[in-house]
Amino acid sequence: ILIATVAPVATMIFLDMYKCWTKGDIVNIIRHSTVVGPFLGGFFKMILMYHKRIQAKQILDEFDRDHYMLNNFSETYKDIARASIRNCQIYSERLWLCLVTTCVMTFPVMAIALNIYNFVFKSEPTKYMIHDLEKPFSDSPEERFESPYFELLFAYMFYAAILYVVNFTGYDGFFGLCVNHACLKMELYCKAEEAMLADREEVYGRVVAVVREQCRMFRYVDLIQDTFNIWLGIIFIATMIQICTCLYHITEGYGFDIRYMIFVYG
Question: Which GO BP terms sit in this record (predicted)?
Answer without folding.
Answer: signal transduction
